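User: structure tokens for this one?
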Amino acid sequence: MVKILHAADFHLDSPFGALGEERSRQRRQECRALAGRLVDYANDHGADLLLLSGDLFDGERVYAQTAEELAAALGRFHGAVIIAPGNHDPYHHRSPYARTLWPENVHIFDKNTIEALEFPQYGCTVYGAAFTAAESGAPQPFVARGEGVNLLVLHGDVGAADSRYRSLTPAWLAQSGVDYAALGHVHEFRGVQYAGATAYAYPGCPEGRGFDELGEKGFLFGTVDRGSVELRFVPFARRRYAVAEVDVTDGDAAHVALEALRGREEDVVRLLLTGEVEEQPDVARLTEQLSDFCWQLEVRDRTRTRQDLWQGCGEDSLRGLFLQNLREEYDRADEQGRAAIEQAVRYGLAAMENREL
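Assistant:
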């Protein structure tokens, strides 16, 4: 049995351009500190292997400080580190992997074909390959032949037959015979899955970088044995991205929005204001009022100005006829029925005007 920490897709030195110059610089520095935090966790929990499945760097051009800090952090790990470069950070003579002095415990795959690393002290063999260019085809079939636990570390795209980013299939994973495939490329943890007897998973990215990477981000930690995989997802992001939709129809926009921001002090939040209002909210003023309640705030106004629902009722038009028919039902209905009819009017008018409700 071997104890592993599986992480991927750090994307170090991402620009974070949407945050502004100072906040972008802070986020890049926080992400540089990620490897050290991971190593501390792995050491504290007795991990044998740290499996890093590619895209540790966002591109070939990285600050020298970034690669040096990563190497120094990984050198503090008590076990062995295995890296399989991905499509954003392929291995070649100009890559950060080739230009950085790495500690002896760090092993980096540098070929586009599956190779094996033996770790008799942990009773396992680790297979893997690198991207050596920004794109890679499907790998050649291989069969794991290690006597102990067999692991695979790889950056690739499971289930996308036409992917330019190393297309992998469940059948390919199943025939490999590995006990666990530690994959990178997908930025969302979707559970540990199986292809035949082979378990595989994407841990997702450990830090979100935009509103397309919402919620908890982290890594996988646990044990792998022959025919047995016990891994759990560990939330680890320094900051989370969140989108909160707030209906301000019946309340003060600032007060209602404040409730949605509770517990988000360290997060990057996009507030979507919805509902019917007498006048449009002052987005700039709201942003100023609420900005202290989260690390970074973006407010978007999607409210609509309240209007007389029955305006035009009885006119010689499709709208007028539609409203007249419903108004007759409205006048006969009780309070609950009237609320339902008003909602039907809103949907009907939105459809006629080709707009969202």
